């Protein structure tokens, strides 16, 4: 007989943080400050790209996906965690749990594919400057952006669709937010196929992203060494450093997150915090790094602020 407690609309329990007395409100206000700061920075970058015609270029149309992806990641994770800390409910309905996990995995894959697309754009701009306009046409840019989001969507959907083949027999999510591994632990039966496909999808994302970026940056480095124009070298470095910093930040935080779950002596709360960092650190740093290292974005923002002050 079917156990209705594990039906589609059943309620799940999240594993909460252990917070000392009097600590939940300071943690909540710190978290909400971080959240609104990240929202402000990413919305500022999005608004600049939309409103300023000097940023209506292939590079920035592709860049537009990065703060958009960061907003998805932060919003899918942090408000729910902060709400649970204050209300001490730690409950979520299964469909909302699946939706949160889906968006968080879309965010993770999105960063990798977006950075790959951005590195390809820089490769064309720096290594083939005379052909840039003919290569990076509006049609090509639309195809690149569609490929980034389309490939990410297909891989994540294929991962989550496999969960429907397994019966669910548990209702406690061993994390403060929902992700695919946590959802998979709620099921009973043979999970081998799910684990293999999960590893395969992760390998595909990493392989595609890293190979495209490695090719692009090696070609850019060769071009920089070969050219005698110091101005061209400086421009190449400034446009690529931001992307490399973002990639390294994401990979380092992701690696620490994975390693934190591999050592038994790491506390459960620290593992949860490490898991949250991957959805907090990149969205907070990405718009700042891009604003600092990309002169066109920085100068556009400064002009806007100067005009506001003068008015």
From TrEMBL:
Q: Where in the cell is it found?
A: Cell membrane
Which ranges does the record mark as transmembrane? 27-51, 58-78, 98-120, 140-162, 203-227, 239-261, 273-293
Q: Name one GO cellular component term.
A: plasma membrane
Which Pfam families has this protein been placed in? 7tm_4
Q: Which domain of life is it from?
A: Eukaryota
What are the record keywords, sorted?
Answer: Cell membrane, Disulfide bond, G-protein coupled receptor, Glycoprotein, Membrane, Olfaction, Receptor, Sensory transduction, Transducer, Transmembrane, Transmembrane helix
* InterPro entries linked to this entry: GPCR1_Superfamily_Member, GPCR_Rhodpsn, GPCR_Rhodpsn_7TM, Olfact_rcpt
Please list the residue ranges annotated as the G-protein coupled receptors family 1 profile domain: 41-290
Give GO MF terms, alphabetically.
G protein-coupled receptor activity; odorant binding; olfactory receptor activity
Q: How does it sit in the membrane?
A: Multi-pass membrane protein
Q: What is this protein called?
A: Odorant receptor, family 71, subfamily AQ, member 1
To which species is this protein native?
A: Seriola lalandi dorsalis
């Amino acid at each position: 007989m079917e156990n209705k407690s594990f039906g589609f609309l059943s309620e799940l329990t999240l594993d909460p943080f252990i917070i000392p007395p009097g600590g939940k409100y300071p943690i909540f206000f710190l978290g909400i400050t971080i959240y609104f700061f990240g929202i402000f920075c990413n919305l500022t970058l999005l608004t600049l790209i939309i409103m300023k015609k000097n940023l209506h270029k292939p590079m920035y149309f592709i860049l537009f996906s990065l703060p958009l992806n960061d907003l998805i990641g932060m919003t899918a994770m942090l408000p729910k965690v902060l709400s649970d800390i204050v209300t001490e409910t730690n409950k979520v309905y299964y469909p909302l749990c699946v939706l949160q996990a889906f968006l968080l995995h879309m965010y993770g894959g999105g960063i990798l594919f977006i950075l790959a697309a951005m590195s390809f754009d820089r490769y064309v701009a720096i290594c083939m400057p005379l052909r840039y306009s003919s290569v990076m046409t509006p049609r090509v840019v639309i195809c690149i952006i569609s490929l980034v989001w389309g490939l990410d969507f297909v891989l994540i959907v294929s991962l989550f669709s496999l969960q429907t083949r397994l019966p669910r027999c548990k209702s406690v999510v061993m994390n403060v937010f929902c992700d695919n591994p946590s959802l998979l632990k709620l099921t009973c039966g043979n999970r081998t196929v799910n684990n293999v496909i999960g590893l395969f999808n992760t390998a595909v994302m990493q392989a595609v992203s890293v190979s495209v970026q490695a090719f692009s940056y090696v070609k850019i480095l060769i071009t920089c060494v070969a050219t005698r124009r110091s101005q061209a070298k400086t421009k190449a470095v400034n446009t690529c450093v931001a992307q490399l910093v973002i990639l390294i930040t994401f990979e380092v935080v992701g690696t620490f997150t994975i390693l934190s779950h591999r050592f038994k002596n790491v506390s459960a709360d620290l593992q949860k915090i490490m898991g949250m960092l991957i959805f907090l650190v990149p969205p907070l740093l990405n718009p700042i790094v891009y604003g600092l290292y990309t002169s066109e974005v920085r100068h556009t923002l400064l002009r806007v602020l100067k005009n506001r002050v003068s008015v």
